[in-house]
Amino acid sequence: MKELTARLWENKMYGTTYGKGQYRKAVFNGTLEIQNPYGKYLVDMEDIETWFHFPKSPIHVEITNRIAQPPGNEDGILMSWLYRYEGGIKTAVDGYAALDMNNNQLSIQINDAEYGITESWELPVRKCISRVPGKPTPALIATNQTELSTPQKPSTNGVFHRDNTQAIEALLNRA
Fold first, then answer.
1. Could you tell me which of 19, 35, 103, 159 has the fewest CB atoms within 10 Å of its CB?
2. Count of domains in the chain?
3. Whole domain around residue 42: which residue ranges?
4. How far does Cα 149 stand from its chain's mean position?
């Protein structure tokens, strides 16, 4: 399984308008980073119906057309389409991310043939604590790495610290 780190930030623009009758519907914005080969993907976590009924690219429309019955909203479940982010350019890829806030789980499926990434992950989600005032810190983080790399190494109550071997073992057993 490839190493992946997911960082989700609260969308401070949630609910505001960007045009007549157009509202920002993503509760969280985030990134998914794969280490080898390196790949960065962007996510906008929305409720299920918004995610399903408003795909923004042809590949995502194709995916929705394959689903026989449209899904309905479920409390605490958010979904996102995936976009590869490279050199300031967003490219839609086959895949999705699902955040289950009831069980603190993040499910990710990436089918990026161009980069040779066809994998899925089920990761536990943790809340982050901002340790440095003024430094942007994600609201939620999920990873299958034992230690995060700098420059963004938010605190998760020491769960990814080397001294916390019991938590690391539990995390690796889930991955």
1. 19
2. 1
3. 4-174
4. 18
